[in-house]
Description:
This protein is α/β, with parallel strands linked by helices and 209 residues long.
Amino acid sequence: MDEFTPQEIEAARKLFAGPCDFMLGVAALSQLPDAAFPEVAFAGRSNVGKSSLVNALTNRKTLAKTSATPGRTQQLNYFNLGGALYMVDMPGYGYAKVSKTQVAEWTQLIYDYLRGRPTLRCVFILIDSRHGLKESDLELMKMLDETAVSYRIVLTKADKVKDQDLAKIKQAIIVTLKSHAAAYPDILATSAEKGLGIPELRAVIASYT
């Protein structure tokens, strides 16, 4: 479990309270910005709450567009966090209601990005606390293991489940992580709506700057 001092938590809060601007949406590797800063990426199934989490981290309501329609994020959306770090909101995977051709294009873009971005420090895989790991999550984890990209599991919507159920989900995932070489061994539960785990996740992200 990550342990952060009050000073580290406060420094992270200040970082996220400062400028955080949408830069560009990347639909092809040729559009990637210069690798000027370290970057972290957020991945997860469609409608897992990625955009809501990005908004909660930055304490903004509309930085990342949220939608009840799965698959709304259709490219790599880059955000510049205070000139210190890039945050990348990746296309959701899973049950997005789009053509198979489009899904294949997104999958290829994600794989090429994960495999070839030298400044990518960590991928945060977001998992809905109510559902736990799905097959598509495990496929992404395998891809990250193969490309030797470090990743961490972040549970979303933790306020939607009972404490004992949340504990069971966390323990089951931790057991699974033991067989995944690139995975961080612990997980963080968050709620964008209630603010649960947000200061700690900010501190984790800030540690990559």
